[in-house]
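Write out the 3D structure for:
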Amino acid sequence: MKNNMFKKNDVICTFGDSITAGGLWTAEVFQTLAPQGVKVYNCGVAGDTAYDSLRRIYSDCLCYSPNYVTVMFGINDIGRQLYPDRSNPDVENQIQFLYQRHTENMEKVIQILQSSGAEVILFTQPPYMEGEGFTGADLKCNCTIEKCVENVKNLAKKYNLKLVDINSAMKKASQTKKVIGDDRVHPTPVGNHIIAQEFLKSMGIIDEYDSNDEFTLSKENEERLEADSFYKMLMYGEHDIVGKYCDENNITPTREEMRNIALRKKDDPIKYIADCAKLYYDNAYRLYDAKNKMIELTIKMLAHNIK
C-alpha cells in the first residue's frame, strides 16, 4: 500500500443513497484501510436525495466526528419516473426544478460538512444503464445525470475538493463488464469493486486497479456488513418510509405510530420497500441497538486489523 492522505485514528464517513447504503464498496475501502487504523462508517440511506440528506446529516453522519466525508447523491434527485412524459411542459419544468434543487442542496451539504471541520470528497454519480440488456424500465435519464456530474465537478473546483469520478470509470468498465444490475441503477459486485478501486486510486492509496473483478471480504467484515445492512434497512424505514410521510403530513408521531405508518407499506410491489417496512414494524424499537452493534463490530474489526 502506498503512503496516502489518511492516518491512524482518522474516520471516514460515506454519505449517500442506496449506492452507498448497499455497503459493498464501503466495506472494501474499510478492509483496505483498517490496517492503518482508519475507520469507515457507511452513512448511506436508500432512496435519499441531497435534499433529504439534510434531515439526517448531523444524526447519521457528523455524529461520528469524521475527518473525511465522501458525498454521492443524484440518482434519486432527478425524478427518474418523470422521463417517459418529458414532452409535457409541466413535467419538463418539474425535472428542471429537481435538478436545480440537487445543485442547491449539494452546496448546502458541502457547507455543513466543512463547517464541522471535515474534509469533503465528492463522487460523481454512476450512470443509469440505458438500452437493451436490462429488465428495468429504460427511462432515458442520463441527460440529466450528466448535468449532475458536471455540477459535482464544478462544485469540486469551486470549493477545492477532491473528486472521485466513478461515472467515467463505470462507463468505461461497462464496455466489457456488467457493472450495473438489471434494475439499471445499482452496481453489481463488480461495479462496487470499481467504485472502491476508483476511490482508493484517486486518494493515492493504490497505483492501479487490482486484477480481480470482485473483492473478497474477510469473515469479520462480512459479519460487520451484515449488521450494517440490518441497520441500513431500519434507517430506510425510519427516514424514507416513515420520515417522508410525516414531513408531507406535518405530523410528529410516537414510535408506535411510526411502526403503523411503516406497516402500510408491507405489501408494496417493490420488494425492498416491503421488506424494510416489515423489518421496521418488527424492530423499530431496536434501531439504536442495531446502530450500536454496527459500531461495535466496526471497532472490533479495526482492533483486529490495525498494524
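The two ends are 13 Å apart (CA to CA).
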